[in-house]
Amino acid sequence: MSIRIAVIQFPGSNCDRDATHILNNVIGIQADLIWHTNFKERKYDGCILPGGFSFGDYLRGGIIAAHSPAVKEAEIMIKDGRPVLGICNGFQILTEAEFLPGALLRNDTLKFECRWVHLRVENNETAFSNQMKKNEIIDIPIAHSEGRYFHDNLKELYDNDQIVFKYVSKKGLLNEESNPNGSFDNIAGVCNLERNCVGLMPHPERASEEILNPFKNAHGIKLFKSMVNFIKSRI
Amino acid sequence: MPIVGNERDTVEVALTEREIERIKSILGRDPYITEWGMFDVMGSEHCSYKSSRPKLKLFEPAEENYDYVLAGPGQDAGVVDIGDDYCIAFRIESHNHPSAIEPYHGAATGIGGIIRDILCMGMFPIALLDPLRFGRLKNNSHSQWLLKYVVKGIADYGNCTGIPTIGGEVEFDHSFENNCLVNVACIGVGKVEDFTPSRASKPGDYAVLMGNSTGRDGIHGVTFASRTLTEQSESDRPAVQIGDPFSKKLIIEATIEAVKTGYVRGLKDLGGGGLSCASSELTGDGGTGIEFDVNKIFTREPNMTPFEIMLSESQERMMFIVKAEGLETILEIFKKYETPYAVLGKINDSKLLRITDADNMVVELDPTLLSDFPAIIREEKRPDFLDDLINQKTPERSLKFDEIIYRLIASENICSKEWIYRQYDHEVGVRSVVKCGDGDSGVLRIIGTNKYISASAGCNSKHCFLDPYEGAKGAVVEIGCNIISNGLKPIAMVNCCNFGNPEKPTSFWYFSECVKGMADSIKFLNIPCVGGNVSFYNEDEVLQKVIKPTPIIMLLGYIEGQENIITLPFKKSGNPIFLIGETKNELGGSEYHSVIYNIEGGTPPKVNLDFAKRTWDFLLDVNKKGYIKSIHDVNKGGFLITILEMSFPNELGADLNLYDCFDKDLTSEQIVFSESVGRFIIEVDADKIKEFIVLIKKYKLYFKEIGVITEEKQIMIKGLEENFNLDIMKAKNLFNSTLPRIMEGDM
Question: Do domains B1-51+196-373 and B566-747 have the same CATH topology?
Fold first, then answer.
């Protein structure tokens, strides 16, 4: 069976080609770059909202794109169980559209932060983490200025097991130094109740090839492989 | 400044009486008021290069001498062919004056402008680099303010447009206190068939203006940039444009999509000089003409005069020359991206630029009159103070070596610049193979090929101040060494010349000597100069300060094969360390002199080009064989600083025995702190020493095995006046904490 993924291009998206490159050339599945007003969900098995500055991040990161027709199409996909991933600005869009819980605030450093961090897998039963082990450490970079995860009822997130990734040290320790942006409880990525929609601030597409990775691994690719596995398991 | 015009309107122009008379006699009439404005802008130093042109002739014509150069000086960007139908465009320019009075928007619009220069060659922008100069930072709130907002301006604009900032360089020196330097460089990639010249060569094509609306911002930006900074400069703030990176991102996408259709015959960005510059250069260079009505141009506010419209430097605008049969297709693309546009009119063969305002003629002249201003021959004179400065002696050393090195590693010019590059997205685009901090240059892969490019930019302003000819040569060699250090070969150069007032003979002498130095070195090293930018008038009249001469060199590197790429950190204990290159008594302009004694003089480095060339050839050769494991070129602070920087990432130490490694006449401090150019520290694979030595002897190079890498977290130095140890963790902490402490703390 041939899998087909849509990578949505909002005005101002800038990691759209990067995600498409990984899916097409590294994973080897068909990924189409689609302008946000042209996107129709019917043809696709999954969808990625890429990083960037959709609509210039004017007003607030992700809020204008959350009202794009593409997001309405993505909602249909989420509702019928197909995988939808939001990376960085895509994560902001998914929280603004209220498909994912919480909000992303300005970094506590008050600056844009571009650096490699380490994630610990908290939930490996989602559409984008099923090829990882629980508590596995993932090397991956961040690049954002509004990535401080906030939720006013963290207990609910824990009760529903919606936290997918947390920032930790290289050795897996959960501490303040390994939190790059002041996120609540070091949260880097979350999922919806159904586990088919995931959002995270770090960039798996930048960590999917050894040549780009200072730790000489390709941990990021596991997110995309999880998606492929999830799609195959649904059939 | 003279006032020109007629009974109804007058305008003050920065033209000389001779230039005014020449314009009148060629036209055979008094220019219209809009024409006066256009002559004023196009005659500014910034647009006309009237002072610098006679000197820039020293650079060989790049397109004629190098078959891989597709576009050279005079185009918006240099373009080189890297094989298999791929080409690379790159350019550097300055945005000094706007940044000095409004650092955030000044720097941001600098980035915006340089991106457009790449884009208008039809190339997709993939990297930015930013060489910067400020006054000393510590306890200097003005310099800290400038640095903070210049970095933020670059970050906000670059990050939003999705172009990674892969490198840069910064120096802090009192001469840049008020007149900071913000140089911005951009690299683009594309297919050879996408290469679009900035020319309207065919009558019948349409001229289409696309992008943001035209407003009253930035009127006379280039004339403002072509004079010195004074107390009144604050009031020139309206001459600084405001950037809009979101619009720019849409313009990039729309432009690339348009270029890919094959319907775009010419392309030009609207930067300095706005519509005046774009319309006259497109038709002037193409040998054509155009007629349009200014009312077709969509403006940001009502009642703008033709004068204002033609001179506005509003950001984020492009002029497309579109083949008639493709007009509809191109306009559909602009609609998709919701970028406003206006079809101005058709290109004709009249060789005239005719602009009307409804029924009134406001401009009617030969466009080449605007783009070909006569050159001015400037006087040059070596400053009298230089001899005393060069004869300055190194004061007697009172500190121990380890103490001096700890001070140097923590000094503003040597410390880690991580505080800056963390704010830049340096990875977007998934091309960044060697990232900020991992090497002397930024290395990018060209996706879909086995090709790698790299870039580095900078110069040593202190060396150039003492000896501009040797300093400029040193800059070419030092930047080349940065490229070589990552395993790539320098293939083309662009430069950005930052100097004082060219009307002053000493300032012009510095420019002239630097150009000679650059031209001689690249000729010897077989590197074409494919573009450049000259920024004069970098003087602060309030403090009576001229900036130190700053001929920023940017080199593009190229190599095929990932296996050739090499990085800076020490890899393995037990591997021997070699120093390649001659260490001479050259402490003039060194960080040692400036940080420890606060003096600027002494004997500055002289450059041996023949030696540099052989070293590069050797390194490219030996690297292919895989004998070397890490490499870093020796720069500010001397070779022990280089070794420390290599030891930090993997926290590996070194055991050094320097006995008998250097010229007997050198003192220990000259050995350690000299900044002689063209040297490298190299880690050689312990199993390949013999082969390495056989090969290096063939190239007849100066080299010494100076020690070995160890697991200890210290550098142990023997064989100098005194033995001493350097604690790597202490040095690393000093190296990393300086900028955060100054910028986030209260220093």
Answer: yes
The pLDDT value given to residue B238: 64
Helices (H), B649-703: 668-673, 689-698
B195-211, pLDDT tens digit by residue? Answer: 998 899 999 999 999 99
- CA-wise closest residue to B572 among B717, B685, B716, B439: B685
Rounded Cα distance, B120 and B124, in Å: 9
CATH fold group of domain B66-192+416-563: 60s Ribosomal Protein L30; Chain: A; (3.30.1330)
- The fold for domain B1-51+196-373 equals Phosphoribosyl-aminoimidazole Synthetase; Chain A, domain 2 (3.90.650)
* Min Cα–Cα distance to chain A from B563, Å: 11
**Nearest chain A residue to B448, by CA:** A25
Tell me which chain A residue has its CA closest to the CA of residue B425: A114
Q: What share of chain A is helix, strand, coil (3-state, %, to 5)?
A: 30, 25, 45
For the stretch B424-477, pLDDT in tens is 999 999 999 999 888 899 999 999 999 999 999 999 999 999 999 999 999 999
Q: Say which CATH topology domain B566-747 has.
A: Phosphoribosyl-aminoimidazole Synthetase; Chain A, domain 2 (3.90.650)
Whether A212 sits inside 8 A of B159 (CB atoms) is no
Using the beta-carbon criterion (under 8 Å), do A11 and B428 form an inter-chain contact? no
| pTM for the model | 0.95
Residue of A15, A47, A88, A197 marked active site: A88
The Cα A129–Cα A195 span in angstroms is 10
If one compares B16 and A91, the residue with the highest pLDDT of the two is A91
Chain A residues near residue B432 by CB distance under 8 angstroms: 212
What residues of chain A lie within 8 A of the CB of B247, using their CB?
Answer: 56
Query: Residue B537 region, left (φ>0) first, then alpha (ψ -120 to 50), else beta?
Result: left
Arithmetic mean of pLDDT, A54-63? 93
Contacts of B315 in chain A (CB under 8 A): none
In 3-state terms, what secondary structure has residue B102?
coil
- Complex prediction ipTM: 0.95
Q: Which of A36, A151, A203, A219 is an active site residue?
A: A203
Residue B177 main-chain phi, psi, to 5 deg: -45, -55
Residue whose C-alpha is closest to residue B429's, from B257, B188, B193, B255: B188
Distance from CA of B157 to the nearest CA of A (A): 10
- Cβ pair B174, B134 in contact under 8 A: no
Q: Domain ranges in chain B? A: 1-51+196-373, 66-192+416-563, 566-747
pLDDT tens digits, one per residue of B535-570: 999 998 888 889 999 999 999 999 999 999 999 999
| Helices vs. strands in chain A: H and E counts, helices first | 5, 11
Rounded distance between C-alpha atoms, residue B189 and residue B126, angstroms: 7
